[in-house]
């Protein structure tokens, strides 16, 4: 595994965050979706350290019953950041009902799973636009998830600035510990909250294996895991790239 100085990297990340927001004004706000998981918890904590609690707006967006609601509330209370619960249930159900009447496409399981994060991202942009000062939506994806495309395009993969994109899950956990976040938020079993499966069950391998492979391509991990990671990485590279555009000659 690559060496990781958690104190150095955390302090540099906080400074980067402060400088990025302040170049747009010293009252600029950050809007972040709070799921109760490690990534949104660590990102929100970084934002508080960089900007102060009053410049961070945490939005909790349940779609029906939210299994992580208590954890999401725990985080915003622990950090003391302004927050609001904005359910997406009504317009999620309305969208599904509308789609089911369509004739040219099918309402698949994956459509239903990916619709929720896309509606959540549109909600975050609505919240940002509704602030009295310039506000930006913060992405919470990490390097491990990005490497295998474990995100929804124009959903949780979107945002105005990404803070954890260069950190693996293993490193994100260390940052969370360094910042003193509650253990139940940092070390809970990661889940997308959509499919009913843990992240690792859905991916088919452990994050520790993925992180080891990202850090060292010659890492000693099973051939089938290596092949699965490679396949997902190639298939999902488009999520990390700018939209291709034709250039006239």
Strand percentage lies at 5-15%
Radius of gyration, taken over Cα atoms and rounded to an integer in Å: 18 Å
Helix-strand makeup class: alpha/beta
Q: Which term fits the overall shape?
A: globular
Low-confidence stretches: none
The CATH topology = Rossmann fold
SSE order, as H and E? Answer: HEHEHEHHEHEHHHHH
Can you tell me the CATH class? Answer: Alpha Beta
Number of domains: 1
| Largest beta-sheet characterization | 5 strands, parallel
User: Count of DSSP helices?
Assistant: 11
Q: What share of the residues lie within helices?
A: 40-55%
- Spatial order of strands in the largest sheet: 3-2-1-4-5
GO cellular component, one term: cytoplasm
Keywords: ATP-binding, Ligase, NAD, Nucleotide-binding
EC number: 6.3.1.5
Pfam families: NAD_synthase
Task: Write a concise keyword list for the protein shown above.
five-stranded parallel β-sheet, 5 strands, alpha/beta, 249 residues, single chain
